[in-house]
Fold:
Amino acid sequence: MDLSAEERAMLAGDLGPGVAKALEIIVALGRVYGARGLVPVTSVQVAGVSYRNLGEAGLQFLTDWADQGARAQVPATLNPAGIDALAWRELGFSEEFAGRQMAVVQAYEALGIAATCTCTPYLVGNVPSFGDHIAWSESSAVSYANSVLGARTNREGGPSALAAAIAGRTAAYGFHLDQNRRAALRVVIRCPVRTLSDFGALGHLVGKHARDKVPFFEGLGECSPTQLKALGAAMAASGAVALYHVDGVTPEADRSHALLPEHETLVVPDLQSAYAALNAEATEIDLVWFGCPHAGLDEIAQLARLLEGRRVAAATWVTTARAIRERAIGEGLVASIESSGARVLADMCLVVAPMQELAFRTLATPSAKGATYVPSHAGLAVRFGTIEQCVEAAITGIWPA
Amino acid sequence: MSAETHLSARVVNAGPAAGPALISQEPLGFLGGVDPDTGVVIETGHPLEGQSVAGSVLVFPTGKGSTVGSYTLYRLARNGLAPAAIVNAEADPVVAVGAVISDIPMVDQVDLSRIQTGDRVEIRDDVLIVSSTAANTAPP
Structure:
Protein backbone atom coordinates (compact mmCIF):
# COMPACT_ATOMS: atom_id res chain seq x y z
CA MET A 1 0.00 0.00 0.00
CA ASP A 2 1.23 3.53 -0.81
CA LEU A 3 1.56 5.52 2.40
CA SER A 4 2.65 9.17 2.61
CA ALA A 5 5.67 10.15 4.71
CA GLU A 6 3.28 11.50 7.34
CA GLU A 7 1.29 8.25 7.41
CA ARG A 8 4.47 6.18 7.72
CA ALA A 9 5.57 8.36 10.65
CA MET A 10 2.17 7.92 12.31
CA LEU A 11 2.45 4.17 11.82
CA ALA A 12 5.96 4.19 13.30
CA GLY A 13 4.63 5.78 16.47
CA ASP A 14 5.89 9.37 15.99
CA LEU A 15 2.52 10.67 17.23
CA GLY A 16 2.25 8.13 20.04
CA PRO A 17 1.06 4.55 20.44
CA GLY A 18 -2.65 5.49 20.19
CA VAL A 19 -2.26 6.97 16.71
CA ALA A 20 0.04 4.10 15.64
CA LYS A 21 -2.67 1.62 16.65
CA ALA A 22 -5.26 3.51 14.60
CA LEU A 23 -3.00 3.41 11.54
CA GLU A 24 -2.33 -0.30 12.06
CA ILE A 25 -6.06 -1.04 12.04
CA ILE A 26 -6.67 0.99 8.89
CA VAL A 27 -3.67 -0.45 7.06
CA ALA A 28 -4.69 -4.02 7.99
CA LEU A 29 -8.18 -3.43 6.57
CA GLY A 30 -6.64 -1.78 3.52
CA ARG A 31 -4.57 -4.93 2.96
CA VAL A 32 -7.57 -7.22 3.39
CA TYR A 33 -9.59 -5.21 0.84
CA GLY A 34 -6.75 -4.43 -1.56
CA ALA A 35 -6.68 -0.64 -1.05
CA ARG A 36 -3.90 1.24 -2.81
CA GLY A 37 -3.68 3.94 -0.17
CA LEU A 38 -5.49 5.98 2.45
CA VAL A 39 -7.86 8.92 2.04
CA PRO A 40 -8.56 11.75 4.53
CA VAL A 41 -12.04 11.68 6.10
CA THR A 42 -14.14 14.69 7.12
CA SER A 43 -16.63 12.95 9.43
CA VAL A 44 -16.97 9.82 11.55
CA GLN A 45 -19.93 8.01 13.17
CA VAL A 46 -18.96 5.42 15.78
CA ALA A 47 -21.15 2.40 16.60
CA GLY A 48 -20.55 -0.13 19.35
CA VAL A 49 -21.88 1.85 22.31
CA SER A 50 -24.25 -0.40 24.22
CA TYR A 51 -22.55 -2.06 27.16
CA ARG A 52 -24.75 -5.05 26.37
CA ASN A 53 -22.73 -5.65 23.18
CA LEU A 54 -19.33 -4.26 24.19
CA GLY A 55 -19.05 -5.85 27.61
CA GLU A 56 -16.01 -5.35 29.82
CA ALA A 57 -13.71 -6.29 26.90
CA GLY A 58 -14.87 -3.39 24.77
CA LEU A 59 -14.90 -0.94 27.67
CA GLN A 60 -11.37 -1.98 28.59
CA PHE A 61 -10.20 -1.49 25.01
CA LEU A 62 -11.69 2.01 24.79
CA THR A 63 -10.23 3.03 28.15
CA ASP A 64 -6.77 1.65 27.24
CA TRP A 65 -6.81 3.44 23.88
CA ALA A 66 -7.79 6.76 25.49
CA ASP A 67 -4.98 6.26 28.05
CA GLN A 68 -2.53 5.92 25.14
CA GLY A 69 -3.46 9.47 24.13
CA ALA A 70 -5.72 8.58 21.20
CA ARG A 71 -8.09 11.46 20.28
CA ALA A 72 -10.46 12.01 17.34
CA GLN A 73 -8.90 14.36 14.76
CA VAL A 74 -12.12 14.97 12.81
CA PRO A 75 -15.74 15.62 13.88
CA ALA A 76 -17.05 12.33 15.25
CA THR A 77 -20.41 11.39 16.75
CA LEU A 78 -21.68 8.40 18.68
CA ASN A 79 -24.38 5.77 18.08
CA PRO A 80 -27.24 5.12 20.55
CA ALA A 81 -26.59 3.55 23.93
CA GLY A 82 -28.67 0.96 25.77
CA ILE A 83 -30.50 3.46 27.98
CA ASP A 84 -31.78 7.04 28.15
CA ALA A 85 -29.13 8.77 30.28
CA LEU A 86 -31.80 10.64 32.27
CA ALA A 87 -34.91 8.42 32.23
CA TRP A 88 -33.41 4.92 32.65
CA ARG A 89 -34.51 4.47 36.24
CA GLU A 90 -38.17 5.37 35.55
CA LEU A 91 -38.14 2.93 32.62
CA GLY A 92 -37.01 0.14 34.96
CA PHE A 93 -33.44 -0.49 33.77
CA SER A 94 -30.94 -1.63 36.39
CA GLU A 95 -28.43 0.57 38.17
CA GLU A 96 -25.66 -1.95 37.33
CA PHE A 97 -26.25 -1.65 33.59
CA ALA A 98 -26.64 2.13 33.75
CA GLY A 99 -23.32 2.48 35.57
CA ARG A 100 -21.37 0.42 33.03
CA GLN A 101 -23.17 2.14 30.13
CA MET A 102 -22.19 5.58 31.45
CA ALA A 103 -18.59 4.40 31.75
CA VAL A 104 -18.62 3.42 28.06
CA VAL A 105 -19.98 6.82 27.00
CA GLN A 106 -17.34 8.55 29.16
CA ALA A 107 -14.59 6.44 27.56
CA TYR A 108 -15.77 7.59 24.12
CA GLU A 109 -15.84 11.20 25.30
CA ALA A 110 -12.24 10.80 26.51
CA LEU A 111 -11.42 9.69 22.94
CA GLY A 112 -12.92 12.94 21.62
CA ILE A 113 -16.18 11.47 20.30
CA ALA A 114 -19.25 13.70 20.81
CA ALA A 115 -21.77 11.79 22.95
CA THR A 116 -24.70 12.43 20.61
CA CYS A 117 -25.94 8.85 21.16
CA THR A 118 -28.04 8.77 18.01
CA CYS A 119 -28.22 6.68 14.83
CA THR A 120 -29.25 9.83 12.89
CA PRO A 121 -26.13 12.02 13.16
CA TYR A 122 -27.24 13.74 9.94
CA LEU A 123 -30.22 15.22 11.86
CA VAL A 124 -28.04 16.72 14.61
CA GLY A 125 -25.27 18.53 12.76
CA ASN A 126 -22.93 15.78 11.51
CA VAL A 127 -23.91 16.33 7.87
CA PRO A 128 -21.26 15.40 5.29
CA SER A 129 -21.32 17.12 1.90
CA PHE A 130 -21.69 15.48 -1.50
CA GLY A 131 -18.48 13.65 -2.43
CA ASP A 132 -16.94 13.79 1.07
CA HIS A 133 -14.97 10.75 2.17
CA ILE A 134 -16.23 9.71 5.61
CA ALA A 135 -16.01 6.66 7.90
CA TRP A 136 -19.36 5.75 9.40
CA SER A 137 -20.56 2.69 11.23
CA GLU A 138 -24.30 2.19 11.96
CA SER A 139 -25.74 0.59 8.85
CA SER A 140 -28.78 2.89 8.51
CA ALA A 141 -26.63 6.01 8.75
CA VAL A 142 -24.14 4.56 6.25
CA SER A 143 -27.00 4.02 3.82
CA TYR A 144 -28.33 7.56 4.31
CA ALA A 145 -24.91 9.21 3.98
CA ASN A 146 -24.01 7.32 0.80
CA SER A 147 -27.39 7.42 -0.90
CA VAL A 148 -29.21 10.57 0.20
CA LEU A 149 -26.22 12.85 0.91
CA GLY A 150 -23.84 11.43 -1.72
CA ALA A 151 -20.96 11.16 0.75
CA ARG A 152 -18.69 8.12 0.56
CA THR A 153 -18.34 5.49 3.25
CA ASN A 154 -18.00 1.75 3.64
CA ARG A 155 -19.98 -0.13 6.29
CA GLU A 156 -17.41 0.38 9.02
CA GLY A 157 -17.36 -1.60 12.23
CA GLY A 158 -17.09 0.24 15.55
CA PRO A 159 -13.30 -0.13 15.96
CA SER A 160 -12.47 0.77 12.35
CA ALA A 161 -14.64 3.91 12.46
CA LEU A 162 -12.97 4.90 15.71
CA ALA A 163 -9.55 4.25 14.15
CA ALA A 164 -10.50 6.51 11.23
CA ALA A 165 -11.48 9.28 13.67
CA ILE A 166 -8.11 9.00 15.44
CA ALA A 167 -6.06 8.72 12.24
CA GLY A 168 -8.20 11.23 10.30
CA ARG A 169 -8.06 8.73 7.43
CA THR A 170 -9.51 5.53 6.12
CA ALA A 171 -8.37 3.00 3.52
CA ALA A 172 -9.54 3.86 -0.01
CA TYR A 173 -11.53 0.85 -1.17
CA GLY A 174 -15.17 -0.10 -1.73
CA PHE A 175 -17.63 2.80 -1.79
CA HIS A 176 -14.83 5.40 -1.73
CA LEU A 177 -14.16 4.50 -5.37
CA ASP A 178 -16.40 5.61 -8.30
CA GLN A 179 -16.51 2.19 -9.93
CA ASN A 180 -18.12 0.55 -6.88
CA ARG A 181 -20.98 3.05 -6.59
CA ARG A 182 -22.95 1.87 -9.64
CA ALA A 183 -26.05 -0.29 -9.34
CA ALA A 184 -26.09 -4.00 -10.25
CA LEU A 185 -29.78 -4.42 -9.32
CA ARG A 186 -32.62 -2.54 -11.04
CA VAL A 187 -35.75 -2.50 -8.87
CA VAL A 188 -39.01 -1.78 -10.69
CA ILE A 189 -41.87 -0.77 -8.38
CA ARG A 190 -45.35 -1.83 -9.60
CA CYS A 191 -47.38 -1.04 -6.47
CA PRO A 192 -48.20 2.00 -4.34
CA VAL A 193 -45.54 2.84 -1.73
CA ARG A 194 -47.16 5.49 0.43
CA THR A 195 -46.71 5.17 4.18
CA LEU A 196 -43.51 5.12 6.19
CA SER A 197 -44.07 1.41 6.91
CA ASP A 198 -44.53 0.80 3.15
CA PHE A 199 -41.07 2.24 2.56
CA GLY A 200 -39.72 -0.04 5.28
CA ALA A 201 -41.55 -3.07 3.86
CA LEU A 202 -40.11 -2.34 0.41
CA GLY A 203 -36.65 -2.01 1.91
CA HIS A 204 -37.09 -5.34 3.69
CA LEU A 205 -37.93 -7.11 0.41
CA VAL A 206 -35.19 -5.46 -1.63
CA GLY A 207 -32.50 -5.88 1.06
CA LYS A 208 -33.16 -9.63 1.24
CA HIS A 209 -32.77 -9.90 -2.51
CA ALA A 210 -29.89 -7.44 -2.96
CA ARG A 211 -27.67 -8.62 -0.08
CA ASP A 212 -24.72 -6.20 -0.57
CA LYS A 213 -25.55 -5.11 -4.15
CA VAL A 214 -26.35 -1.49 -5.02
CA PRO A 215 -30.07 -1.20 -6.00
CA PHE A 216 -31.45 1.35 -8.46
CA PHE A 217 -35.15 2.12 -7.84
CA GLU A 218 -37.54 3.02 -10.66
CA GLY A 219 -41.17 4.01 -10.21
CA LEU A 220 -40.97 5.32 -6.66
CA GLY A 221 -41.76 8.93 -7.58
CA GLU A 222 -41.17 11.65 -5.00
CA CYS A 223 -39.82 10.52 -1.61
CA SER A 224 -39.16 12.57 1.51
CA PRO A 225 -35.87 12.27 3.44
CA THR A 226 -37.82 10.55 6.26
CA GLN A 227 -39.16 7.95 3.82
CA LEU A 228 -35.66 7.36 2.42
CA LYS A 229 -34.38 6.95 6.00
CA ALA A 230 -36.90 4.12 6.54
CA LEU A 231 -36.16 2.52 3.15
CA GLY A 232 -32.38 2.50 3.64
CA ALA A 233 -32.54 1.33 7.26
CA ALA A 234 -34.70 -1.66 6.29
CA MET A 235 -32.40 -2.65 3.40
CA ALA A 236 -29.36 -2.46 5.66
CA ALA A 237 -31.10 -4.71 8.21
CA SER A 238 -32.51 -7.46 5.95
CA GLY A 239 -29.47 -7.23 3.67
CA ALA A 240 -26.17 -5.38 3.73
CA VAL A 241 -27.10 -2.56 1.35
CA ALA A 242 -24.79 0.42 1.93
CA LEU A 243 -25.80 2.49 -1.10
CA TYR A 244 -28.86 2.78 -3.32
CA HIS A 245 -30.11 5.14 -5.98
CA VAL A 246 -33.68 6.37 -6.55
CA ASP A 247 -34.44 7.57 -10.07
CA GLY A 248 -35.08 11.31 -10.06
CA VAL A 249 -34.51 11.63 -6.31
CA THR A 250 -31.05 10.73 -4.98
CA PRO A 251 -28.01 12.76 -6.05
CA GLU A 252 -26.09 10.05 -7.96
CA ALA A 253 -29.11 8.55 -9.73
CA ASP A 254 -28.25 9.72 -13.24
CA ARG A 255 -29.34 6.51 -14.92
CA SER A 256 -26.76 6.29 -17.70
CA HIS A 257 -24.01 6.25 -15.10
CA ALA A 258 -25.66 4.90 -11.95
CA LEU A 259 -27.00 1.66 -13.44
CA LEU A 260 -24.45 -0.85 -14.71
CA PRO A 261 -25.16 -1.98 -18.29
CA GLU A 262 -25.17 -5.58 -17.02
CA HIS A 263 -27.67 -5.69 -14.20
CA GLU A 264 -30.31 -7.91 -12.71
CA THR A 265 -33.96 -6.70 -12.56
CA LEU A 266 -36.30 -7.21 -9.61
CA VAL A 267 -39.98 -6.38 -10.10
CA VAL A 268 -41.95 -5.61 -6.92
CA PRO A 269 -45.69 -6.24 -7.60
CA ASP A 270 -46.80 -5.77 -3.96
CA LEU A 271 -45.51 -5.50 -0.40
CA GLN A 272 -47.63 -8.25 1.18
CA SER A 273 -44.82 -10.74 1.69
CA ALA A 274 -42.80 -8.18 3.68
CA TYR A 275 -45.74 -7.36 5.95
CA ALA A 276 -46.31 -11.10 6.45
CA ALA A 277 -42.63 -11.81 7.19
CA LEU A 278 -42.39 -9.03 9.79
CA ASN A 279 -45.60 -9.83 11.71
CA ALA A 280 -45.90 -12.38 14.52
CA GLU A 281 -49.29 -13.56 15.83
CA ALA A 282 -49.31 -11.19 18.83
CA THR A 283 -52.71 -9.64 19.69
CA GLU A 284 -52.14 -7.92 23.03
CA ILE A 285 -49.46 -5.24 22.71
CA ASP A 286 -47.30 -4.33 25.74
CA LEU A 287 -45.01 -1.79 24.12
CA VAL A 288 -45.26 0.47 21.06
CA TRP A 289 -42.03 1.83 19.59
CA PHE A 290 -41.64 4.78 17.24
CA GLY A 291 -38.29 6.21 16.17
CA CYS A 292 -36.18 3.51 14.52
CA PRO A 293 -34.02 5.05 13.13
CA HIS A 294 -34.34 7.90 15.64
CA ALA A 295 -37.35 10.10 14.91
CA GLY A 296 -36.93 13.47 13.23
CA LEU A 297 -38.92 16.53 14.28
CA ASP A 298 -41.46 15.84 11.50
CA GLU A 299 -42.19 12.36 12.87
CA ILE A 300 -42.51 13.68 16.43
CA ALA A 301 -44.94 16.39 15.24
CA GLN A 302 -47.04 13.76 13.44
CA LEU A 303 -47.24 11.61 16.59
CA ALA A 304 -48.20 14.66 18.67
CA ARG A 305 -51.13 15.22 16.31
CA LEU A 306 -52.20 11.57 16.36
CA LEU A 307 -52.00 11.30 20.17
CA GLU A 308 -53.64 14.65 20.92
CA GLY A 309 -56.35 14.37 23.56
CA ARG A 310 -55.92 10.58 23.82
CA ARG A 311 -54.54 8.28 26.50
CA VAL A 312 -52.28 5.27 25.82
CA ALA A 313 -52.97 1.85 27.36
CA ALA A 314 -49.69 0.25 26.24
CA ALA A 315 -46.26 1.61 27.13
CA THR A 316 -45.38 3.89 24.20
CA TRP A 317 -41.83 5.02 23.51
CA VAL A 318 -40.63 7.48 20.88
CA THR A 319 -36.83 7.35 20.57
CA THR A 320 -34.90 10.28 19.18
CA ALA A 321 -31.64 12.23 19.49
CA ARG A 322 -31.23 14.36 22.63
CA ALA A 323 -30.85 17.51 20.47
CA ILE A 324 -34.06 16.73 18.55
CA ARG A 325 -35.90 16.10 21.83
CA GLU A 326 -34.77 19.55 23.05
CA ARG A 327 -36.17 21.16 19.89
CA ALA A 328 -39.40 19.18 20.28
CA ILE A 329 -39.68 20.46 23.85
CA GLY A 330 -39.31 24.00 22.51
CA GLU A 331 -42.20 23.45 20.10
CA GLY A 332 -44.45 21.95 22.78
CA LEU A 333 -44.44 18.55 21.09
CA VAL A 334 -42.93 16.56 23.97
CA ALA A 335 -45.51 17.93 26.43
CA SER A 336 -48.25 17.11 23.97
CA ILE A 337 -47.06 13.50 23.44
CA GLU A 338 -46.28 12.86 27.10
CA SER A 339 -49.73 14.10 28.23
CA SER A 340 -51.07 10.95 26.54
CA GLY A 341 -48.83 8.82 28.76
CA ALA A 342 -46.37 8.09 25.93
CA ARG A 343 -42.67 8.89 26.45
CA VAL A 344 -40.19 10.73 24.24
CA LEU A 345 -36.80 9.16 25.01
CA ALA A 346 -33.30 10.13 23.94
CA ASP A 347 -29.88 8.45 23.69
CA MET A 348 -31.21 4.90 23.39
CA CYS A 349 -32.21 2.16 20.98
CA LEU A 350 -34.39 -0.83 21.92
CA VAL A 351 -32.30 -3.14 19.75
CA VAL A 352 -29.25 -2.61 21.98
CA ALA A 353 -31.10 -1.95 25.28
CA PRO A 354 -31.11 -4.61 28.01
CA MET A 355 -34.81 -5.30 27.33
CA GLN A 356 -34.61 -8.62 29.22
CA GLU A 357 -34.50 -6.49 32.41
CA LEU A 358 -38.09 -5.37 31.71
CA ALA A 359 -41.28 -7.43 31.53
CA PHE A 360 -42.45 -6.69 27.97
CA ARG A 361 -43.47 -9.64 25.78
CA THR A 362 -44.90 -7.97 22.67
CA LEU A 363 -44.08 -4.86 20.68
CA ALA A 364 -45.66 -2.92 17.80
CA THR A 365 -43.66 -0.64 15.50
CA PRO A 366 -43.93 1.02 12.08
CA SER A 367 -40.19 0.42 11.59
CA ALA A 368 -39.18 -2.50 9.36
CA LYS A 369 -35.63 -2.29 10.73
CA GLY A 370 -36.95 -2.45 14.29
CA ALA A 371 -39.28 -5.33 13.39
CA THR A 372 -36.32 -7.20 11.86
CA TYR A 373 -34.05 -6.92 14.89
CA VAL A 374 -36.35 -6.83 17.93
CA PRO A 375 -37.38 -10.53 17.94
CA SER A 376 -33.77 -11.80 18.07
CA HIS A 377 -32.10 -8.91 19.90
CA ALA A 378 -34.78 -8.01 22.44
CA GLY A 379 -36.74 -11.26 22.56
CA LEU A 380 -40.19 -9.73 21.94
CA ALA A 381 -42.94 -10.85 19.53
CA VAL A 382 -43.43 -8.03 17.01
CA ARG A 383 -46.32 -6.47 15.11
CA PHE A 384 -45.34 -4.30 12.16
CA GLY A 385 -47.76 -1.85 10.52
CA THR A 386 -48.58 1.76 9.75
CA ILE A 387 -48.04 4.60 12.21
CA GLU A 388 -51.85 4.85 12.56
CA GLN A 389 -52.15 1.12 13.40
CA CYS A 390 -49.36 1.45 15.96
CA VAL A 391 -51.06 4.50 17.55
CA GLU A 392 -54.30 2.48 17.72
CA ALA A 393 -52.40 -0.37 19.41
CA ALA A 394 -50.97 2.15 21.88
CA ILE A 395 -54.43 3.49 22.75
CA THR A 396 -56.19 0.11 23.10
CA GLY A 397 -53.34 -2.27 23.95
CA ILE A 398 -54.65 -4.53 21.15
CA TRP A 399 -53.28 -4.90 17.61
CA PRO A 400 -56.05 -3.61 15.28
CA ALA A 401 -57.48 -6.40 13.13
CA MET B 1 11.03 -37.92 12.03
CA SER B 2 9.51 -34.64 10.99
CA ALA B 3 8.69 -33.14 7.61
CA GLU B 4 8.80 -29.42 6.95
CA THR B 5 6.55 -27.59 4.49
CA HIS B 6 6.76 -23.93 3.49
CA LEU B 7 3.46 -22.21 2.62
CA SER B 8 3.03 -18.73 1.19
CA ALA B 9 0.76 -16.26 2.99
CA ARG B 10 -0.39 -12.64 2.95
CA VAL B 11 0.44 -10.64 6.07
CA VAL B 12 -2.61 -9.06 7.75
CA ASN B 13 -0.91 -8.19 11.05
CA ALA B 14 2.86 -8.56 11.04
CA GLY B 15 4.87 -10.33 13.69
CA PRO B 16 6.77 -13.55 14.34
CA ALA B 17 4.88 -16.37 16.00
CA ALA B 18 5.01 -20.11 16.54
CA GLY B 19 2.86 -22.75 18.17
CA PRO B 20 0.88 -25.92 17.70
CA ALA B 21 -1.84 -25.72 15.04
CA LEU B 22 -5.47 -25.87 16.15
CA ILE B 23 -7.63 -26.31 13.08
CA SER B 24 -11.30 -25.70 12.36
CA GLN B 25 -12.79 -26.48 8.97
CA GLU B 26 -15.71 -24.21 9.94
CA PRO B 27 -15.67 -20.39 10.27
CA LEU B 28 -15.22 -19.12 13.82
CA GLY B 29 -16.99 -16.20 15.50
CA PHE B 30 -15.51 -14.78 18.68
CA LEU B 31 -18.49 -12.97 20.27
CA GLY B 32 -20.41 -15.80 21.88
CA GLY B 33 -18.09 -18.29 20.18
CA VAL B 34 -15.08 -18.16 22.49
CA ASP B 35 -15.20 -17.53 26.25
CA PRO B 36 -12.84 -14.56 26.85
CA ASP B 37 -12.19 -15.63 30.44
CA THR B 38 -11.18 -19.24 29.71
CA GLY B 39 -10.11 -19.22 26.05
CA VAL B 40 -12.42 -22.17 25.39
CA VAL B 41 -14.63 -22.40 22.28
CA ILE B 42 -18.22 -22.38 23.57
CA GLU B 43 -20.30 -22.28 20.39
CA THR B 44 -22.61 -25.31 20.56
CA GLY B 45 -21.85 -27.78 17.79
CA HIS B 46 -18.68 -26.03 16.63
CA PRO B 47 -15.90 -28.48 15.65
CA LEU B 48 -13.61 -26.85 18.25
CA GLU B 49 -16.25 -26.77 21.04
CA GLY B 50 -14.57 -27.40 24.41
CA GLN B 51 -11.01 -26.76 23.16
CA SER B 52 -8.84 -23.84 24.27
CA VAL B 53 -7.45 -21.44 21.65
CA ALA B 54 -4.80 -20.10 24.06
CA GLY B 55 -1.26 -20.26 22.71
CA SER B 56 -2.28 -22.09 19.54
CA VAL B 57 -1.76 -21.12 15.95
CA LEU B 58 -5.49 -20.91 15.28
CA VAL B 59 -6.33 -22.01 11.75
CA PHE B 60 -9.84 -21.46 10.33
CA PRO B 61 -11.25 -20.48 6.92
CA THR B 62 -12.64 -17.09 7.91
CA GLY B 63 -14.43 -15.21 10.69
CA LYS B 64 -18.17 -14.86 11.16
CA GLY B 65 -20.61 -13.01 13.38
CA SER B 66 -20.79 -9.72 15.25
CA THR B 67 -18.27 -6.92 14.79
CA VAL B 68 -18.00 -6.84 18.58
CA GLY B 69 -15.97 -10.06 18.20
CA SER B 70 -12.89 -7.85 17.72
CA TYR B 71 -13.18 -6.90 21.39
CA THR B 72 -13.53 -10.54 22.49
CA LEU B 73 -10.09 -11.18 20.97
CA TYR B 74 -8.78 -8.15 22.85
CA ARG B 75 -10.15 -9.47 26.12
CA LEU B 76 -8.61 -12.91 25.45
CA ALA B 77 -5.28 -11.18 24.94
CA ARG B 78 -5.65 -9.11 28.11
CA ASN B 79 -6.33 -12.35 29.97
CA GLY B 80 -3.24 -14.01 28.47
CA LEU B 81 -5.44 -16.48 26.60
CA ALA B 82 -5.05 -15.27 23.01
CA PRO B 83 -3.95 -17.57 20.23
CA ALA B 84 -0.23 -17.21 19.34
CA ALA B 85 -1.29 -16.43 15.78
CA ILE B 86 -4.28 -16.56 13.44
CA VAL B 87 -4.16 -18.21 10.01
CA ASN B 88 -7.14 -17.80 7.64
CA ALA B 89 -7.95 -18.71 4.08
CA GLU B 90 -9.62 -15.28 3.73
CA ALA B 91 -9.40 -12.67 6.47
CA ASP B 92 -12.61 -10.89 7.44
CA PRO B 93 -12.56 -7.38 8.93
CA VAL B 94 -13.77 -8.39 12.40
CA VAL B 95 -10.97 -10.86 13.05
CA ALA B 96 -8.39 -8.67 11.26
CA VAL B 97 -9.23 -5.68 13.47
CA GLY B 98 -9.30 -7.93 16.53
CA ALA B 99 -5.83 -9.27 15.71
CA VAL B 100 -4.42 -5.76 15.27
CA ILE B 101 -5.82 -4.31 18.49
CA SER B 102 -4.72 -7.42 20.40
CA ASP B 103 -1.20 -7.66 18.88
CA ILE B 104 -1.85 -11.14 17.50
CA PRO B 105 0.15 -11.93 14.34
CA MET B 106 -2.21 -12.85 11.50
CA VAL B 107 -1.85 -14.07 7.93
CA ASP B 108 -4.34 -15.17 5.28
CA GLN B 109 -4.48 -16.54 1.72
CA VAL B 110 -2.96 -19.77 3.01
CA ASP B 111 -3.67 -23.27 1.65
CA LEU B 112 -5.19 -24.62 4.88
CA SER B 113 -5.35 -28.20 3.56
CA ARG B 114 -1.59 -28.43 4.11
CA ILE B 115 -1.85 -28.00 7.89
CA GLN B 116 -3.08 -30.56 10.43
CA THR B 117 -4.00 -30.14 14.08
CA GLY B 118 -0.87 -30.65 16.19
CA ASP B 119 1.57 -29.56 13.49
CA ARG B 120 4.04 -26.97 14.69
CA VAL B 121 3.48 -23.78 12.70
CA GLU B 122 5.94 -20.90 12.58
CA ILE B 123 5.20 -17.57 10.88
CA ARG B 124 8.20 -15.74 9.38
CA ASP B 125 7.01 -12.66 7.48
CA ASP B 126 4.86 -14.01 4.64
CA VAL B 127 5.93 -17.65 4.95
CA LEU B 128 4.44 -20.38 7.11
CA ILE B 129 6.80 -23.13 8.14
CA VAL B 130 4.77 -26.22 8.99
CA SER B 131 6.55 -29.08 10.80
CA SER B 132 4.45 -32.20 11.02
CA THR B 133 5.31 -34.30 14.06
CA ALA B 134 6.12 -38.03 13.77
CA ALA B 135 2.73 -38.90 15.23
CA ASN B 136 1.00 -36.84 12.56
CA THR B 137 2.94 -38.11 9.60
CA ALA B 138 1.31 -41.06 7.97
CA PRO B 139 3.80 -43.78 7.03
CA PRO B 140 4.41 -44.02 3.29
The longest strand of chain A covers residues 259-268. Chain A touches chain B through 24 residues (CB under 8 Å).
